[in-house]
Automatic annotation (TrEMBL):
It comes from Lithocarpus litseifolius. This is Copine C-terminal domain-containing protein. It comes from the Eukaryota. InterPro entries: Copine, Copine_C, vWFA_dom_sf. One of its GO terms (biological process) is cellular response to calcium ion. Residues 24-162 form the Copine C-terminal domain. One of its GO terms (molecular function) is calcium-dependent phospholipid binding.
């Protein structure tokens, strides 16, 4: 799977270390917390996949310790991305006030609206504040809870059917 992420030089070095199996013991997160640009990049990747008719679905994970500073730009990016094969999982870490993040997760039944009045075609965000979940396993369970529904909503809206199982992958029926 190809992964493309816009990175600053420090982050690039950290990513290089992680790809080679080396651990990083000290990570300092800093503001401002801007989601709009990275969501736009994730949307571009998903959009290219659609234009090439490849049946891929993308899951983008954001880990944040800060209050979002570009809320309207982020809403606009999410609304534009809502018709793409993309889900965005956001984990809030630390003691920040994450109330604005809850707005991005349309679990309250109200879809996001952009600054131009366009309404999201579907909910593509799941936000989980880590301090409310606790254990790592619980965070993973909480993150994956909505993902199947988001995936199915996308595939059904595009009338995408599963491909038939290839003959070599079918289970053997020999006795």
């Amino acid at each position: 799977m190809e992964v493309q992420v816009p990175l600053r030089l420090k982050e690039l070095k950290a990513s290089w270390l992680l790809m080679r199996g080396l651990s990083i013991h000290n990570v300092a997160l800093a503001g401002p917390t801007l989601f709009g640009p990275v969501i736009n990049t994730a949307a571009q990747i998903a959009g290219r996949s659609v234009s090439y008719n490849s049946n891929k679905y993308f899951v983008f994970l954001i880990i944040t310790d800060g209050v979002i500073t570009d809320l309207q730009e982020t809403k606009d990016a999410l609304v534009r991305a809502s018709n793409l094969p993309l889900s965005i999982l956001i984990v809030g870490v630390g003691g920040a006030d994450f109330r604005e993040m809850e707005v991005l997760d349309a679990d309250n039944g109200r879809r996001l609206e952009s600054s131009t009045g366009r309404v999201a075609t579907r909910d593509i965000v799941l936000f989980v504040p880590m301090r409310e979940v606790g254990r790592l396993i619980s965070v993973v369970q909480a993150l994956l809870e909505e993902l199947p529904g988001q995936f199915l909503t996308y595939t059904r809206s595009r009338d995408i059917k599963p491909s038939p199982l290839h003959a070599s992958l079918k289970p053997s029926t020999s006795a």
